[in-house]
Amino acid sequence: MNHNNSSSAVDRPESGSRVPLTLAITGGKGGVGKTQVALNLALVLARQGYRTLLLDGDVELANVNVMLGVYPGMTLEHVVLGERTLDEVLLPVTENLDLLPGASGVPGCLELDSARREDFLAQLRTLEQGYDRVIIDTAAGLSTPALHMVAASHLAALVITPDPTSLTDAFSLVKVLHRKGYRRTPSVIVNMARGATEAQTVYRRFSTAVSRYIGVQLHYLGAIWRDETIAQSISTQRPVAMMDDSDPSCRQFWTLADMLAVRCSQGVAPANGFARYWGRLVRRRHQQRSEQQPQKAVATGSNREWLASLGERLHRSQGDPLSRYRLITGILETLGESVDEDAVEALQTGLAAMNWEEAPVTVRRAASEHFRQLARVVAPPEGLRPEEGRALGAGADASGEPATEDSGPG
């Protein structure tokens, strides 16, 4: 296939005339090649003439930086803190492609005061309007920032591999997104497949399970074959999309970009854009905080007694695992219905470290009742039921081959 690299071949909008198409590349677990896909696809889009912005949403691993051989001293977190502007942390990669490192720092704007928050969001809007395509390499898994990155995008592409654990983790991601109200059609990219037959088999197994048990329809965006050249590109710090487009390794990502263009031509769900999504989220959060008074979950009547006792016991506790949860008493008073899953996880960790055997029976009963109330407020993510695991091929044999269709529910 002869690809035209000239920007004149691309029908691009006027700068700022509309929000750019935003694609989140995500995955249920690490090690599926998500960052490789995001980086190489962004490079191809840039070579096709699209002004492209790549957001590195996994600041802890910073894999994009490693694959490009660039090590920025500043990230988006410095912008959120007011120490730098967006233009100062933006890294030019190639013609038409820029990298914004540390995009996972965007949620930090939730905690800014009004003036700094509006300044940051204005910078984000201005930056966004200068591009045709925004590719987000999200953090892997079910973290809140990763879920928000998906929600802020026009399209989400879920990277899976033939590995059964990849499928079960991706299944959990789709399940959580659906439970939280995500109603767009996720696309799927099968990575590290040994050929078209395996890629189609893996996709059919995954999409069938997702449709049957979650009620979500998926879209097949494409596949990337298992390729030694792609694997070696990490150590050479030269992504395959920088090679000649006649190279087989590079050509796979041109094909993927073409499939993305076809997907876009079919129409995508409307979205307000990355900057506007975060702006609306931030303002909604602050409005809720100003309008709602925290509910006293346990700080009234006889419950004050056990709360004081619990606080005293934590205060006397020796050793860091216990002492760092002394503030649990204040949390219990103010959480009410504002509790989220992160808070529940922190509470669970603290409670597990406590020596409950020494607590009076009345204290244990009161604490038990309170945490039952919290459990009713926050429904934990559903686990993978046995029949769902079988449908995804979680019972693969030792060779790593996917289980047969017979392993699914009858």
UniProtKB/TrEMBL annotation:
Gene3D superfamilies the record matches: P-loop containing nucleotide triphosphate hydrolases
Leader sequence segment: none
One CC-aspect GO term: cytoplasmic side of plasma membrane
One GO BP annotation of this record: negative regulation of cell division
Residue ranges of the TM segments: none
Region: Disordered, residue numbers: 379-410
Domain AAA: 23-169
Molecular-function annotations in GO: ATP binding; ATP hydrolysis activity
UniProt keywords, alphabetically: ATP-binding, Nucleotide-binding
Domain of life: Bacteria
Pfam families: AAA_31 (PF13614)
Classification via InterPro entries: AAA_dom, P-loop_NTPase, ParA/MinD_ATPase
Keyword ATP-binding found: yes
PANTHER family: CELLULOSE BIOSYNTHESIS PROTEIN BCSQ-RELATED (PTHR43384:SF4), SEPTUM SITE-DETERMINING PROTEIN MIND HOMOLOG, CHLOROPLASTIC-RELATED (PTHR43384)
Protein name per the record: AAA family ATPase
Originating species: Vreelandella halophila
Source organism phylogeny: Bacteria, Pseudomonadati, Pseudomonadota, Gammaproteobacteria, Oceanospirillales
